[in-house]
Amino acid sequence: MIERGSLWLPLAILLLLAGLSFWIERAVQLPVNGNGAERADPEGIMEDFSALRTDPQGRPQYRLSARRLRHYSNSKLTQLEDPRFAQLDAKTGEIIAQARQATVSPDGKEVDLLGKVKVVRQARPGQSALSLSTSRLLVFPDQHLLRAPGSVEVRDATLTVTAGAMEYRTDRRLIKLTGRVKARYLAKAR
After folding, report:
1. What is the number of H-type helices and E-type strands within the chain?
2. Its pTM surpasses 0.85
3. I need a surface site. Which of 33, 39, 51, 147 has the fewest CB within 10 A?
């Protein structure tokens, strides 16, 4: 009898340890749906954030700044409040985009501006200043590309244009409008 009882004790301890390790694993595991603590608690917060990207010769290419930056490490999500993106090019001039909020892709190659997005291209010799308004703008800084997937309004000194979507190649100053495009020409005062 004593020999059989001594076999059950180690087996009971092993079962207890297996159950305890299963419970611990479930308790610390993150939820699959992404609504866990990684979105609620940012890994880092910066106030008055500003970053400048330069080319290999040290010339400024673009600047991204915001009132507040929040980075979430588990989802690799970066959120910006009151972001400002400025493309700095001596040949084509400065282009500035502002919005209420933005998210930056994990690799930093895409900035998604949301909420009352306003883009301004400074005047250059032979070209008036241009402003663009939309609710969402995707910025691809390394490709010199701005893309508005929804409705957009473009204005300069002599023209007002609305469209269903837009793609703006900033290095060539080329705007491609798609969807329902309406243009209104305003004659200059003499």
Report:
1. 2, 14
2. no
3. 33
Name which of 171, 175, 105 is nearest 147 in CA terms: 175
User: Closest Cα to residue 48, out of 18, 19, 82, 3?
Assistant: 82
pLDDT for 8-60, tens place per residue? 777 778 888 888 887 888 777 755 555 544 446 788 888 998 988 888 888 88
Burial of 64 (0-12, 13-18, 19+ CB in 10 A): buried
Q: Which CATH superfamily is domain 37-185 in?
A: Lipopolysaccharide (LPS) transport protein A like domain (2.60.450.10)
Task: Report the distance separating Cα 53 and Cα 59, nearest Å.
Answer: 9
Average pLDDT across the chain, whole number: 84
Ranges of each domain in the chain: 1-30, 37-185
Return the residue matching tokens 């080329």. Answer: 174
Tokens (6 digits) for 72? 């979430």
SS3 22: helix
